[in-house]
């Protein structure tokens, strides 16, 4: 497995998405990220090759060089397995689905509100309405025998059947 690094990050796009209060933290993070990337890129991806023939020729004990060569070639330092990329990609796909659903819901709400705006624009101007026109348009907002309310006309100020006084005969 080879080492992997994200070599291009759109820092300007990130800066646009975060609030002003977090800009200093982003700058510090960017600086630290750049330092790590610079240190990593300064080293080659694979170690330099060893010229074993040179050492066999110049060292008096070639069997020792052969032993070191076998041990060196048998040496395997495992690169940590990538456990997180698949989880991040799955979360990204899930977020994309949620965003699409939200967009659809918002579009439906926008259509409903635009229809309401069209109804209001098509309505008779309030200055030209009569009381009867108003009662027809807003039956809940007008006084009627069936819809009597007490001041202050809030829900909790109205009489309900359980609030009625008991009959005089029950005393």
Structural features, described:
The protein is mainly α. The protein contains 6 helices and no strands. It has helices at residues 11-17, 23-42, 52-58, 62-74, 85-122, 131-137. Helix 3 packs antiparallel against helix 4 (62-74). The protein is rod-shaped, with a radius of gyration of 39 Å. It starts with 10 loop residues before the first helix and ends in a 34-residue tail after the last helix. 0% of the residues are buried. The mean pLDDT is 84.
Overall geometric form: rod-shaped
The main sheet comes to: none
What is the first-to-last residue Cα distance? 92 Å
What is the radius of gyration?
39 Å
Compute the average pLDDT: 84
Q: pLDDT under 50 segments (min length 5)?
A: none
What percent of residues adopt helix (DSSP H or I)? 40-55%
Order of helices and strands: HHHHHH
- Oligomeric state of this protein: single chain
SS content category: mainly alpha
Number of helices: 6
By DSSP, the count of extended strands is 0
Q: Give the percentage of residues in beta strands.
A: under 5%
List the helices and strands and how they pair.
Elements: H1 11-17, H2 23-42, H3 52-58, H4 62-74, H5 85-122, H6 131-137
Helix pairs in contact: 3-4
What would you say about this model in short?
This protein has 171 residues and is mostly helical. The protein contains 6 helices and no strands.
Looking at this protein, list some descriptive labels.
171 residues, mainly alpha, 6 helices, rod-shaped
């Amino acid at each position: 497995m080879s080492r992997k690094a994200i070599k291009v990050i759109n820092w300007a796009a990130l800066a646009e998405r975060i609030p002003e209060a977090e800009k200093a933290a982003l700058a510090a993070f960017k600086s630290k990220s750049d330092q790590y990337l610079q240190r990593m890129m300064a080293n080659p991806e694979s170690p330099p090759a060893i010229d074993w023939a040179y050492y066999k020729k110049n060292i008096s004990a070639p069997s020792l060089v052969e032993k070191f060569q076998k041990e060196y070639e048998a040496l395997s330092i495992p690169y940590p397995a990538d456990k997180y990329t698949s989880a991040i990609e799955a979360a990204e796909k899930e977020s994309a689905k949620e965003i699409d659903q939200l967009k659809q819901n918002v579009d439906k709400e926008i259509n409903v509100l635009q229809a309401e705006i069209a109804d209001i624009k098509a309505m008779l101007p309030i200055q030209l309405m009569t009381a009867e026109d108003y009662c027809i348009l807003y039956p809940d907002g007008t006084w009627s025998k069936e819809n009597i309310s007490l001041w202050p006309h809030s829900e909790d100020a109205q009489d309900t059947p359980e609030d009625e006084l008991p009959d005089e005969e029950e005393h």
